[in-house]
Every structure is written in C-alpha cells, then in structure tokens.
Specification:
Length: 317
Amino acid sequence: MTAIKETNFSFPKQTNFYKGKVRDVYTINNQFMAMVVTDRISAFDVVLPEAIPFKGQVLNQIGAKFLDATKDIVPNWVIAVPDEMVTVGRICEPFKVEMVVRGYLAGHAWREYSAGRRSVCGVALPEGLKENDQLPQPIITPTTKAAVGHDEDISREDILAKGIVSPEDYTQLEAYTYALYERGTQMAAERGLILVDTKYEFGKVGAEIFLIDEIHTPDSSRYFYAEGYAARQAAGEPQKQLSKEFVRKWLIENGFQGKDGQSIPVMTPEIVSSISERYIELYEQITGDTFVKNESADVVQRIEENVVNSLNGLLAN
C-alpha cells in the first residue's frame, strides 16, 4: 500500500487549492470543498517526513461517522463522502479560533500545570491536581488558528476584546462545544472509553453556524480506556490511552518537540508500520467497526474518479 503524501488534482470547475498540514483542500465553483485527507502526519505543528499508510482513510471515516452522529446538535459542512479518503461539503467562512474542550488534565494543559501555571487560556485550575485527573467540570481552552506555525492559547476575554468572534457567536460556539463534548463522551463510554479532550472548528454560511473539519478522531482528540482508569490514577500510573500522543511521546523521547534547532528523528519502515497499525487499532476501538483497508492498486486514480463523479452530480443540480 502506497501512502498518499500529496495530491495534485484538477477537478471540474476547480477555483482554488490549499495544502494544510494533513489535508489537501480543493475549492469547487467557489461553492463546494473537496477535502482529501492524505496520509501525512503532523505533531508539534510540524509535518513529519514520512506518510502513514491508511491514516487518511482512518481519519476521514471516523470524522464522517461522528459528524453524522452529531448533526442533530449542530449542522455540519458535509454533503457527501465519495471516497474513503475524501469528504465533499459546503464552503464555510471559518472562525479564527479552535474550540478545545477538556474534561481531564492531560497533554498541553498538564504541561502548563506542571510548570506551575494555575490558569490555562484564562480558566483557573484548582491546586492539588495530578496528571490525567478529571477536572471539576469540562473547560474550554481556545487556541488561535495559525495559517503557518504554532497555534497559540487565547482566553475568551481576549477573543472578545480583539473582536475575533462576536459575543453572540462566541456564546453559541461555547454552547455547541459543550453539547458536542457531552455527546462524544456518551459515545466513547459505550465503547469503554473516556473522551479526555478534543477540539472543534466552526464556520459560517451567512448567519448560520456550521461544524467543520473532522471531530472525535485520534488526531483531534485524546481517549483513555475507562477500565482501570481509577486504579491507575490512584497508583500514580500512566493512563492507557488512544490518541496521537504515542507519536508525540516517541518524538519527545528522540529529542524533538518542534523547537528551533531540533531535528525530526528518522522514521524507519518499522516505525511507520507501527504507527499505521496503531491508527487502525484506534479506528476499531473508537468506532466499534472493523477497519476495511482499501488497497486498490492506484489510489490516486480511485480518488479522482470518485470525487469527479460526486462533483458532477452536485454541479448538475
């Protein structure tokens, strides 16, 4: 299986192209987007040199499942999923913030807390917490969306003071974020998992707010196994988790955190294969579905044909 590191399509009525860290986004007729979820992988806001087979399929299919399962809470951008690695949807004007919601003290929030800070994004945290402890209640710790480089923490107060989002819209984004996290938490519990933290992105079409991008995937979320969580916390042991954190830990152990002067460690075929296997494990654990590898001989041709057929139908209406 050849991993798809990049694409270079020319779709009917294509008007723009944007290459993100992981996704290749094609604008169609200034009306629709065809988002190809490639097999690129990023960590610490850096795209790593090797692509991971089946990663794009994993992320796109998880995202599609959870977007469909939450469309009663907030409308989303999806119109069709014509290929395992592609989603086609409406163009939204994105808000320039990502809504990160945390139910547990893990990852970035823990790194801030362990450095002595008792406030993350303007949200006060109590004394005496340990890594991976459940927070008294879920908190929203927004970040700015960086076109290039690192996203930055920002507080609700700064978002409003700088006019990045209007007070009315931000209040609605908060309400959607908490409701989506609650739904995600319920769905995770059904799979024996804890949804530790996750992020949501939103956009607008006219006055209407839509949920955009992927949700509840291992790239955008952190999961713990529920079984044994309390015992591990009591014993001060690391939590067994399902997320991209294992990639970050491997990088940290090999001297890379995305800082100036640091070099990305060599990604051997064995490392690439193990990451691919972990993503497939994540898919099956998170969704409860068996992962079916699409191992077609020419992945690029398959994607192009499926997207063109989908777009022709949309453009004809």
